[in-house]
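> call design_seq(struct)
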């Protein structure tokens, strides 16, 4: 009998609010919330180390992480798998897009060894106008290919 791979546990940053992780859980995903495990003033480099140590896939809405030296250094040093949800939309809408893209989302960590930062994009308005079920895409942001 072959062993089942461990399910992916997603770790949501506080900048995604409460609705984002709730939508993911309603879709059957295993989610840990930063606010459930750390005090509100916890620096990002601390929770990024936790994510890597516990083999979580982090989800954030903070695209500046890549540009903050201590946070990028934490991603690299601890070998973090980090997905950045891109777009100005309500958290619920961002989460629904994430859930709609689950096949792509689940394949990405299997195909890319940490450390990495990838952006999860929503479909463009023109794509949605052509096809209301259009999917967004995931693009590797660090390291650059």
């Amino acid at each position: 009998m072959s062993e089942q791979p461990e399910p992916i546990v997603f770790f949501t940053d506080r900048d995604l609010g409460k609705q984002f992780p709730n939508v993911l859980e309603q879709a059957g995903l295993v989610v840990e919330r930063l606010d459930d495990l750390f005090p509100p003033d916890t620096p990002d480099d601390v929770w990024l180390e936790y994510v890597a140590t516990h083999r979580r896939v982090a989800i954030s809405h903070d695209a500046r992480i890549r540009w903050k030296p201590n946070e990028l250094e934490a991603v690299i040093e601890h070998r973090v798998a980090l997905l950045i949800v891109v777009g100005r939309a309500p958290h619920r809408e961002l989460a629904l897009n994430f859930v709609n893209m689950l096949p792509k989302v689940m394949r990405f960590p299997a195909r890319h060894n940490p450390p990495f930062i990838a952006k999860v994009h929503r479909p463009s308005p023109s794509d949605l106008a052509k096809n209301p079920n259009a999917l967004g895409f995931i693009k590797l942001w660090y390291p650059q290919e």
